[in-house]
Design brief:
The structure is a single chain. The longest helix has 14 residues. The protein contains seven helices and twelve strands. Strands 3-2-1-4-5-12 form a six-stranded parallel β-sheet, with helices on both faces. Strands 6-11-10-7-8-9 form a six-stranded parallel β-sheet. It has two domains: about 120 residues, NAD(P)-binding Rossmann-like Domain (Rossmann fold), CATH 3.40.50; about 110 residues, NAD(P)-binding Rossmann-like Domain (Rossmann fold, 3-Layer(aba) Sandwich). The protein starts with 6 loop residues before the first strand and ends in an 11-residue tail after the last helix. About 30% of the residues lie in helices and about 20% in strands. It binds NADP nicotinamide-adenine-dinucleotide phosphate.
Amino acid sequence: MPNSGPVHVLLLAGTAEAAALDAALADDDGFRVTVALAGVTRNARPFHGTVRRGGFGGAEGLAAFLRDGAVDLVVNATHPFADRMTAQAVQAAAACGTPILRLSRPAWTRPKGATWLPAEDLAHAARLLPSDATAFLALGQRHLAAFRGHAARLAVRSIDPPPPDLLPTARWIVGPPGQSVSEEQSLLVQLGVTHLVARNSGGTAGWAKIAAAAALSLPVIMIARPAQQAQDTVLNATAALDWLRSMPCWSPGRQPR
Ligand SMILES: NC(=O)c1ccc[n+]([C@@H]2O[C@H](COP(=O)([O-])OP(=O)(O)OC[C@H]3O[C@@H](n4cnc5c(N)ncnc54)[C@H](OP(=O)(O)O)[C@@H]3O)[C@@H](O)[C@H]2O)c1
């Protein structure tokens, strides 16, 4: 029997790569896209696919969604550090026999001559930070607990003002990341930073601070991405589109129902 109806793709989103794949699928009648957002971002960008906000309720909840929603394919394009969602997506897809792809941007690599101190996780990063350091924590408010009570001088930048009890002795810079290397360099110098602490998120948006630290010969305590189960993985939306079109359930002749 010939295939009929568009292939239903569940796109686990929350990144620029997810937005790029959503845009790439917009003009393809062979796919119907449900875009899932955790619902944590206040001003989420518009999508072409049908947006669904909020968690699924663990791997079981996601498996139920895959079955009830007749999802054909899953693309997990969540943030490289979204390890809970990633593990649950693999588990749910396996339980339903639904093919799944991990779309995750490339990790940053150390610029030539730069000093990177590799850390396994936030707690390890805190241990690597000398007590006499002045550290710039490029981590986001949800990832600071490991530095509570640390003897080093701490500076943190966040878009939103911090709650009063979160790192009360830290110096807060409220605002978005700097757009250029020179802007980031000026800030690091002005704060007297001796160490940068960052997660290896990859991508262009956060790269300026890493390049700025390298230009100033500041060591970067770089937190590695969480380990993931073996799965099909691509680095960009174009490769994800190729994967979707390589699936047996898709064919160029599939038309909207
Ligand atoms: N981690 C970061 O630094 C970062 C940065 C930028 C954007 N984001 C985005 O923010 C979201 C949450 O990040 P996180 O680090 O909290 O992830 P996480 O720890 O892996 O996930 C926490 C819970 O949030 C729900 N969830 C996560 N992503 C979802 C999605 N795309 N659609 C529906 N539910 C989702 C799931 O709830 P249930 O168990 O109820 O299903 C999951 O168990 C992710 O979508 C990620 O792409 C994260």
